[in-house]
């Protein structure tokens, strides 16, 4: 067996085995349904908090408060719904309370729009406190033991505060089922907080459901379902045109054309799988891990093969050289490492809770992908330079002109991609951004990734 065939067989076998193992162990991944599994609160100087989620939400299209909790009347509603959210305090904390006392520990759920972030805490009182102390309570600015909140004069009900109190010596307390309707488009955050130091060690379990008017897709992902639908049709048309040309020029087909066909087919499958994955996510609020895993892997394989294809074309494969010779193993090794790095990044990005703008840990996985992309770019342009030099020496003017145009197009594409990536980095590291509302940004991001 040739070296190239051995690499291909090993790559495909490992890839299929990886997909099968992951798919057999997991059923679904939470998304706009945020699950809490006995998670702890983070200590601050005078408070404890737990981040319950953050997403971009569009305003409700209908305003009937009686329909928010009804599964049959959810269309057009935008809300954050609390389901089975339970707080569990330590036995020591519970034992210190009086059996007959009604309120022996207060936990608050705070829902706020990003523009109201300065209204939570004592900032408006020129204080660094989060919780109300006796001095501030004496002025009437807040209630002792509660989180300090300044109501928005334009919308007195916001930021929204939902209080839940422990009773007697009970170790657990469950929030009342409640849904907070969203009547203003914006970026929303949910925090669970308490001020009582005796509640230290309290855990939270349950879930919250975040829904937009047209489904469960978060704000920044809402336009993408339409995008993937359009791209599926575009790839279908491209595939049809390519197939007709392929048949028409059958006698002139070289091995390189088969590789291009494979990339087009992968792109078609990728867009179709992403569309159905997003459609399912939008209707159920959950992402089946099997579908998501296949969609992610189609994307990774297409990206890897696209870069390998650009590299071998730049080397003159099928034009000035019939084979790659001794560098085949190095090309395949770079492709293998890129596939692993890109697959890891895509899995982290698309699996787990969808908290808009909160995935800073992805930076660790972006770095190796960016490094390998740089390796591809340097190798591609270095190879193009050598190929152009060979064509000039052979005075092959037709192929020389073709490769010069290819070099120019590739250079422009790389510059545009780098510029867009720079914008995305600035955009992603602006936690208070609400640019997700603009569909063109979400679509441009996906289109740039598709081109790359």
TrEMBL record:
It is a multi-pass membrane protein. InterPro entries: GOST_TM, GPR107/GPR108-like. One of its GO terms (cellular component) is Golgi apparatus. It is found in: Membrane. Residues 223-436 form the GOST seven transmembrane domain. Keywords: Membrane, Signal, Transmembrane, Transmembrane helix. It holds the Pfam family GOST_TM. The chain crosses the membrane at residues 225-244, 256-276, 308-341, 363-385, 406-429. Its main location: membrane. Coiled coil: none annotated. It comes from the Eukaryota. This is GOST seven transmembrane domain-containing protein.
